[in-house]
Amino acid sequence: MAKSLRSKFKRKMRAIARVKKAPKEAARLNEAVKRRDQFDSTPQSVADKTTSVQAQEAKANQGIETMETDQPASKATINLRTMKTADGKFPSWMNQRQRKKYSQKKKKSKTQQGKKKKGIKVF
Questions:
Q1: Organism's domain of life (predicted)?
Q2: pLDDT 10s per residue in the chain (123 long)?
């Protein structure tokens, strides 16, 4: 298909680069195979892994004491439908695109409430 001098030169240079990079790539692949074989040779079931993780977490949590406060744990003050806080503002972590999306969604729902649906009535 492509028979211009430029494309022939590019094909030639890609072939040279492939030859040059081949030993590194082969070594990387052999290393990955060795790691896989090593991983497969030490079979640990998923249950053993999870129990060991849980045991480590339990040991870590033994020394930690919880701090008691007079106030109850605060709940999220964001309305999930409108994504606004109790003040009527969007949260600070929300970006402008998301704010615009929710405000347009609110406008659309208001306009659709006022319109009546036209169509054929079935008795």
A1: Eukaryota
A2: 578 999 999 999 999 999 999 999 999 999 999 999 888 887 665 556 666 667 777 766 676 656 666 666 666 688 888 889 988 899 999 999 999 999 998 888 888 776 666 667 666
Contact call for residues 81 and 106 (beta carbons, < 8 A): no
Q: Is residue 109 part of a domain?
A: yes
Q: Count how many domains the chain has.
A: 2
- CA pseudo-torsion sign 76, 77, 80, 83: negative
Torsion of the alpha carbons at 22, 24, 27 and 33, rounded to the nearest 10: -80
Separation of CA 25 from chain center: 30
Pair of tokens at residue 42: 């030490």
In a domain, 95, yes or no: yes
Helix, coil or strand: residue 84: strand
Domain assignment present for 54? no
Q: Report how far Cα 107 is from the mean position of its chain's Cα atoms.
A: 30
